[in-house]
Design a protein that fits this description.
binds S-adenosyl-L-homocysteine; two-stranded parallel sheet; DNA polymerase, domain 1; binds iron/sulfur cluster; eleven-stranded mixed beta sheet; disordered C terminus
């Protein structure tokens, strides 16, 4: 607990609470935060309203962060009533806990969407300084409660899989931070799908959320400021290459051969290292966007000079970029290699002609870094 600077229990007003309870008990409601702008046009016109009202509604939703349909100022009461009667809601997220790192640059939230859906989401800020008015503000979103992939070094993987998040639950993670940043005249600049879960195992809802978050009529974030990180589900990587979205892709490789990779990623199954590299090449060919390979460096497991040489051999000539992530501590028995070992590994890759950087980690002191998100442990600390 000594690492925690701020722990805030959510101050919920009674009115908010009753609205929230009403939302979670009404089934078959449709959340407006899962609706694409084109679909919003149809909804609005089907309610007998002119099409321009869809833009007013979208502006209210994405730039004012209302808590209820009633709070959307731009649209007339008759339209608000029609939306509610037709079964629409903006049932929102509830901030259960907030933890801020000592330097103030990393904020981890425990958000609850209903009593069965709780996830962690993280904001990382880079170079915030009085001279730089708008620091880079990256939201690390979750796509699942837990994860079915079971990577042995990852806290989320070790908690097992509970459920997929819905598109609106992904969108609301970003909007929650957007609201928080707006109070300091800042805004969300980047998005990484590196929170809890495997985004490509929840493909449709993840893509729907990205389309909403990047649509100029909705949240309007640049597609190029988004990175999807995947453990490597090949059919989904090919499908993503065919979408009209220009997101960056990161594939979590962790090993240069199948034997070692299957030990670290037990569900790697049919997706061999060679097939993953071919999928990355296809993605690059179709989208023009280079793929990054992420490599969690674990002491004594995948960090030797011999393994670095094998990795260099595998990737050289591909124009590949490797991002080394020195293992963040989790409850497991694995640990982070020394700084010297990390640099030696990087040197061998670079010497072998492979572009390689070491990730600047944010938030490990508050268990908010890669692979440390795990809601059951957070709940125990409450
Ligand atoms: N499921 C996706 C995205 C979420 S994990 C994926 O696996 O890519 C985001 C990144 O954190 C991945 O690269 C993952 O390998 C890495 N990671 C997981 N546990 C980690 C740990 N304990 N230390 C460092 N990185 C870790
Ligand atoms: Fe899931 Fe990614 Fe963690 Fe593996 S590293 S268990 S794929 S969240």
């Amino acid at each position: 607990m000594s690492n925690f600077l701020v722990i805030i229990k959510n101050p919920k007003s009674r009115a908010e609470e009753s609205y929230f309870n009403r939302y979670i008990h009404i089934e078959k409601m449709t959340n407006l935060y899962r609706i694409l702008p084109e679909e919003m046009d149809d909804i609005v016109t089907s309610l007998g309203q002119p099409r321009y009202r869809a833009d007013q509604l979208l502006h209210g939703l994405y730039h004012e962060s209302p808590r209820t349909i009633e709070n959307i100022h731009q649209i007339p009461s008759v339209m608000k009533n029609a939306l509610v009667t037709a079964g629409y809601t903006i049932g929102y997220e509830n901030e259960v806990h907030r933890v801020v790192s000592k330097d103030g640059h990393t904020t981890k939230l425990l958000l609850e969407f209903d009593e069965k859906t709780m996830i962690e989401t993280v904001l990382m800020q880079y170079n915030p300084s009085p001279e730089k008015i708008h620091p880079r503000s990256t939201v690390c979103v979750s796509t699942q409660v837990g994860c079915p992939m079971g990577c042995i070094f990852c806290a989320t993987g070790q908690m097992g899989f509970e459920k997929n998040l819905k598109a609106e639950e992904i969108v609301l993670q970003v909007l929650h931070f957007a609201r928080l940043l707006r109070q300091r005249d800042e805004h969300v600049t980047n998005l990484v799908f590196m929170g809890m879960g495997e985004p490509l195992a929840n493909y449709d809802e993840t893509i729907r959320a990205i389309k909403i978050l990047t649509h100029p009529r909705a949240f309007g974030l640049g597609q190029r400021s988004i990175t999807i990180s995947t453990v490597g589900i090949i059919p989904a990587i090919d499908r993503l290459a065919d979408e009209y979205i220009q997101v960056k892709l990161a594939i979590s490789l962790h090993a240069p051969n199948n034997e070692l990779r299957k030990k670290l990623v037990p569900t790697a199954g049919p997706h061999s290292v060679e097939d993953l590299i071919s999928a990355a090449k296809r993605y690059f060919k179709k989208t023009g966007r280079r793929v990054t390979f992420e490599y969690a460096l674990i002491e004594g497991i995948n960090d030797s000079n011999a393994i670095a040489s094998e990795l260099a051999q595998l990737l050289k000539g591909n124009g590949a970029h490797v991002n080394l992530i020195p293992m963040n501590p989790t409850a497991g028995e694995f640990s982070r290699p020394s700084r010297k070992r990390v640099l030696a590994f990087q040197y061998i890759l670079r010497d072998g002609g492979v572009n390689c950087t070491v990730r600047v980690e944010k938030g490990s002191e508050i268990s908010a870094a890669c692979g440390q998100l795990r809601t059951d442990m957070v709940q125990k600390t409450i």
